[in-house]
Structures are given as C-alpha cells and as structure tokens.
C-alpha cells in the first residue's frame, strides 16, 4: 500500500514508529456459523505502550485485509486488540513533523483508504473492543459492521479536539449516524474540552457505540458466540434512526457554547462541528474527503504542536518531576494529621484517606468546627457511595479512617502533618511550634500556604529540615497540580516523602523554590493585577475583563476574582507588593470592594453588579482592549523571565506545566511560554524555534 501521493512521501516522518502489526488467524465459529478471519492488532509491547497507527501500522492492516478479501470460505472478518488495549489512534509524533500540506493530506487519506475497507468487505466485519479504544482505534471499530465491547474497558474516546485536531479517519461521519448528533458531539467535542474526559465500556454500550457487551473474563469467547448468532440470524441488531434528529440545532447549540468558552480561539472543535453537521447529508466519499481536508489544515497549524507539547508535559514531565530526590529516601506514611477542619482541610482529609488508606485525624479549636469538618468528609463519602464510586464496605472504612480531635496530641504517631489554617505567618508558626512538641523528629510538617515564606515559617523550629510546602489547588480532589516547595533547610528525605505522598494522591507534582506565591499564584496575581490596574486607570471594567477572550482562557480575570474571593486576592496582592513593590500594586478599588463585603463584580445571574462596578472609580486614562491584552501578556513574560532567573523552577516547561494543571491555561495554547514565544511577546524566546509550533 502506497505511502505517497503526488510526490508527498510520509514514511520518513515516522522513522521512529512502533509498528502495530495486524496478524490474521482463522477461527471456527460456534454453531456451525463458518470461519472468521480474526485480525489481532499488536505492537509487541504490553498494555503500558498502547498500539497506534503510523504508515507501518496502516500498511500492515491493509495487507491483512488484502489477505482476507475475496476469500470465498469466510463468513466474517473480526478485529481485536492485544490484552487490555484495542488501539489508541494515530502515531502523532510523526504527524507533528509534517511540513507540507500534501504530506498532511496523505496521512488522512491513508487512514481512510485502509479503515473503510472494513465496512466494504463482501462479508460482515466485527470489532471486538477488548480494551482502551481511542481516536483512530475507536474509528477502526466504527468502520466495522458490528461491535462488541468489554464491560471492563477503561477508556473510550475521540480525544482529537483536545490536541488541536479532529477525528480524521471516519469518526465525525460514522459516529453521528450511529448514535445521533447530540451524543456524537458530546464524544467528539464536549468531552475532549472537559479535561479530555473518557467514557468506560458500559457507558459506550449504553450510548449505542457497541451492539453487545460482555464481561472481561470470557469477552472474546462470548463475542465470537454472539457473532455466530448474528451470522445465523438468531440475533438481530437494531439501531436507532437518527435522520429525524435536529442536527442543525444540536450543532448550533454546541457552537454557541464553544463561543462562550473559547471565543473562537481554538479552530479544531469548530471544524469538528462542521464535519458532524455535514455527516447528515454527505456521501461516504464526500464526508471522508472533508475529514481529509480538515485534518490537513489542522496538521499544518500551530495548535497541534502546542497540544502535543502540553500532552508531553502532562504525560511525561509530570511523572518524572525535575529535581525530585531519589524515591528510596522517602519515609513510609502510616498516619496523617490535618491542622484545621475548614473546607480546604476537610477536602484534604478525604483525599488522604481515599488514596493513602491510612488514618487521618483533623484538629481544630472547638467541637462545632471539628464536627462540621468530619461531617463534611462523611457526607462526601455518602455521595461517592450513591454514585457507585465506592462500595458500602469501602464507604464504612473511609468514614472510620477520618476522625477529629481537639488536641494535637492525636498527632503523636503521625508521619505526615499538614496545616491548613488562616494565611497568616504568626498563626502558622504557632501551629508548627505546637505540632513539633508532640510528633516524632522524623514526622514531615507540610504547609498548604499559597504565598508565605516556607523558610520563615520553619525558622523557629528545632527541626526546620522536615518542613515542606504542599500547595494544593481548589477543589482539592479535582485540580491535578501539587506545588511542592523546598525551603532553605528542607532535606532530601522530607522532599522525597512529599513527592511519594503526592504520587500516592495521584497528583502531578512540581518542585518549586521557596519564593513569594511560588508559581501559579505569582503569575495569576501579576496577570490579574495588570487588568485591575487598567480598570483603576479608567478602562471600562467590561472592556478590560474581556480583553483576553481571544486566548480561550477558562474564565475572565474578574470571574476568577469572583471565584478566588476579593479578600483572598487582596491579601495575596498585599503579600506580593511587600515582596516586589515595583511590579505588584495594591488596588484601592479592590480594597473598597472587600470593605463593601461584595463577593465580586458579578451578580448571581452573571450580569455586572452596578454597585460593585461603581466602586472602581477615579481613573482618567482608559486603555483599549488591545492595550490591556498586551499589558497583561508583557507582564507575564517579564515575571516568567524573572522567575527563571531566580531559579523558582528548573525550566520554562515547569512553569507551563503549573499553569496548565493549576490555572487551567488552555491546552491548545501549549502552555504560557510557547504562546508568548509565538505571539512575539517574549524577547528573547523562552523555548527554541519549532517547539510547540510549526517548524520554520
């Protein structure tokens, strides 16, 4: 099968491809249903290296189909994956090297040429989805006549929009016709843009992606029995008719939500919606050609490279944190103490109990607060039970693990104690001094401070070397980032223990130097400060708040202020002003907002609150939206440059990882430093040319 078209050779782009081989064997179906040619997709590695498709893998599958096509002795053709994995899509490392549109076009056409044959054989084809099926892997299954799926499949998805692409090998055309436009838009657009959400096998079956579902233990055997019954006419597969669905309204509604969220910043989901709408009337040739054109356009853009850069950070760098000590130095944690029983502390207690499965004890100043904190944990456990996320036994065990105490004596046998009290240095130093009196010399003392000096906090202790920053983001269970802060005296054993606990909590940890507000809060405070400063100078609040909509940020600066709370934002601004008075101001208007007890500038219906807006007075030098945008971005570039010079993190990639995971910086922008490079804001560049962008 050719890998060239019009002279556009793509083989060289995939020199490092781990080829997924398509091995064919004949299987005698039960009940005398005949012989099935069963194709197994396998790249030769275990499930930790899933099967993907580059030119080699597509060619191998094409050759397997050549071998079975026209065989008069076959009743059917089947496709199955290696253990735990069906297939997970295209080999994107090679795709990121595309430099000519004809090469990009060929990648789309080659996939279509191979996959469509599964739906155009002389005999029925069956996909037996035994494991993870994502991207092109799911598209392989969609091309088949029938599909079964294992109830144990952990991930079914079309994640392409998450990376700046569209499902380009049939997904946008076949899936809407199979399960309807509304469900297809959810899988193709909404889930990828919601932290790249995956669905499991049972949900995929419920949506109609598969025609039958079987348990993992005997999945292939039962699938073959079911296929035999279909071939014999004993089982009839009926599918819903979606021709009467309101495709136009579904697409229009989805486009409206995209506009609200992205403001046109990311082209891929918009192209995907156009393709879904086209699927209602297009022939197979027309639809597949449109996918080829969209894929070629997007492969030639920066967004794919940016998305792959982000993906690499999240999947690789986050799992091997730069600067983390040897894992062997980590101490075992068999009990956790949490100082405080407020919302943040209670969230942490639940997370520690769920992930570490060790006793967790909360302390606070009075019984009412303590009861409220422990009660919160128990109520959240009940919610997990109601959703089927934990069993009744697990729920009872979790509740038993989390207890409260009015005295810190309960920490005597704890190995890890974290404080989550008011953000005040005197309060935190007092807490640590009290804790140190009752815990062992090896017990790690962690602080969840968002901006205060760890070194100063530990300075009065007998063992300052066991104090470490452990900065969660709210909500604790959802936000994946954990900033682990090394103080001036923090030793390697303490740091290694902190990273070990972070891994057990399933967080992505980044090592950060003890510097004011660390990474995320430092950058967000500078960013928000510039926008608020523009309003203080006379820029209409709505103009300033929407000046950066074109980036597709998860929320506007003043919406973020509402989420954080003006009082907290003011406190952090004051802390940063004390550290860096030339770059961080303290807004008198923000102080008035806090004094007035306003939760922000927005009313509950998300309209601007006139009373709150009226508090921003006194400015006579308004800026345009473009001036506000440049001001905020230049400030970010300056602050990042200074942070790198100060050694707050080891490299720009760590800042990007923090902003993606802790601040929701859009995945499609590839992190903040590549975006500033591409936009010409960073001079000199933070990263080499071609990183997270089309090669020059």
Automatic annotation (TrEMBL):
The keyword Metal-binding does not apply. Residues 518-600 form the 3-hydroxyacyl-CoA dehydrogenase C-terminal domain. SUPFAM superfamilies: 6-phosphogluconate dehydrogenase C-terminal domain-like, ClpP/crotonase, NAD(P)-binding Rossmann-fold domains. Pathway: Lipid metabolism; butanoate metabolism; Lipid metabolism; fatty acid beta-oxidation. It holds the Pfam family 3HCDH. InterPro entries: 3-OHacyl-CoA_DH_NAD-bd, 3HC_DH_C, 6-PGluconate_DH-like_C_sf, 6PGD_dom2, ClpP/crotonase-like_dom_sf, Enoyl-CoA_hydra/iso, FA_oxidation_alpha_subunit, NAD(P)-bd_dom_sf. This is 3-hydroxyacyl-CoA dehydrogenase NAD-binding domain-containing protein. Keywords: Fatty acid metabolism, Lipid degradation, Lipid metabolism, Lyase, Multifunctional enzyme, NAD, Oxidoreductase. CDD domains: crotonase-like. It comes from the Bacteria. Residues 335-514 form the 3-hydroxyacyl-CoA dehydrogenase NAD binding domain. It catalyses: a (3S)-3-hydroxyacyl-CoA + NAD(+) = a 3-oxoacyl-CoA + NADH + H(+).
